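Teaching soon. Got one?

===
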Amino acid sequence: MNLLQHVHERYEHRPGQDSMAEAVARAFATKGQLVVEAGTGTGKTLAYLIPALQARGPVIVSTGTKALQAQLFDREAPLSIAATNVAATFSLLKGRENYLCKKRLAELSQDPRLEWAAEIPVFHAMERWAHRTERGDRAELDSLSDNSPLWRSVDGRAEICVGRNCAQYDGCFVYTARQRAGESQVLVVNHALLFADLALRESGEGAVLPDFRRLIIDEAHLAADIAAQHFGTRLSSRMLVELGRDGAKELAFNAADTLPATTLERSAREFFIAIRPAGYQARTTFDYDGNRSQLAETEERLRQSLLELADACTGGGGLRGEERTLVAARCVNALSALDALLQPAAVGQVLTIEPQGRDGGVLASWPVEIGPRLGDLFAKHFDAVVATSATLAIGGKLDRSARSLGMASAETLVVPSPFDHKTQAAFYVPRHFPDPRERDYPERALREIEALIELSRGRALVLFASHRALKYAAERLPHSLPYTVLVQGEAPREQLVEQFRSDTHSVLLGTASFRQGIDVPGEALSLVIVDKLPFAVPDDPLVAARADLVRRRGGDPFREDQLPEAILDLRQALGRLIRTRTDRGLLALLDVRVRTRPYGREVLRSLPPWPLIEDLEQARNWLRHI
């Protein structure tokens, strides 16, 4: 990797980066598979991009999130080209819903249907942006919230697209992005798009991505869970309500009766209210046989309304015949999904229902085990596959992560972080502290969090195991701390992280999703607190189904599934602190079970060799000079 010394002003030779680059080059040359953990600071992105460019031929690089896509495309791609002197082209491709549909924007401009006054200035800003953007990527719109209903009115989703028959096709942002993707040497996607494409290929309905035969999966610790979301069946109240609204719009264009569309919206809401278990707040198992009698009436009304809307949009003359045909096809697909979901779960699948909004829901089937299917798909569609992350190993071994990705026979490599863990960070676990299952734990944990943040003078990321604990802290900490307290959900994620970076004494509170992808090197982050070991909720349907599978094979679900997952999640969370050689700080886990329970030794063995401290005075001494 000495190629980098001439193009990177802060280049440092890293033997681990060399080892990884050699293994990646070997996988490409032999058409093999590689699973590699590359500790933080290894420089893993360049360790796979440079051999990928040197090997020539196209490659897909899949990252965990859209933010990581942008970072790779903007920062590492130019460096790898300069280092190799290979005239390679990189392109970035996201799912269709990330791109503006010019046709839908024009229709909305002619007949604005904005639900809130706050949407009006955002809509006008969107119109101005549409005239100057070259890519139509929603990420360019800083004023747009993550879950904007306005964007859902103008995005390029497949179910409303008439393809080449659209008057705006020549300048379509979706198809222009796909054309660039097919002409590139390195195509950067995210896991959701990768697995959506593989699911589409498996169904025989086409493909989204070009037929590149080499694949690199970065942030591979996220891949199996994201893949599972794409290899089942889903039907949600939001999908059906949007179908009804789209149907109403198309019928209105022809001055036709919109009653079938409004009837679908009403019957969809009634159906999901009927199937929601009383008082539930999280994903739970759906038992159709146990609810068959009470669902019969609402199920029949939903089926009938889908058939009526499909019939109303089928055949006949008038305007926008293709758009009406798409609505009819969506009705047929929804009926097929309903048929698939309203029956006992197939072998290897679990049926779930989870809340969506105030009275909606998502009905879904999930594969209990995704590894074997991924193994088949990787072998079928790719000659070489490399999977990498900073957190894949348990106790220094990659066997479990490799199996979960369907890559059990892959070459494995663990590259340690080059950072000096013994001097850059210390690990704080209070010795005299209640077990998280004890009644006084929440109050004691909050007082400990306050004390630690006072010692660090803000500059803290606090990660909670549950939304309930986050809410409890968010109600108290802003009043007890002299620092700005930023809370997950109060603003878009990237906005919160940017404010956290710029306000160097602020505090950021979050849950599981904030364990991933937050990169705040330097002074703004000197303390990471994790309230509990991040064990999955044992009665979650997927967790319970995986446990049953392990038991049927004669194994121990806690040791083989739940504990390893918690260790990887903990490593991700604690890994937010030390991002460069100059970072220093304190890592705190307020869970004494790592000291008191036998499995605690396995947790500690899987963490870097940080000095272990146990009281606030030691924490004060550590933080004093940071």
Notes: The radius of gyration is 26 Å. DSSP finds 24 helices and 18 strands in the chain. Residues 59 and 214 are 5 Å apart (CA to CA). The first helix runs from residue 15 to 30.
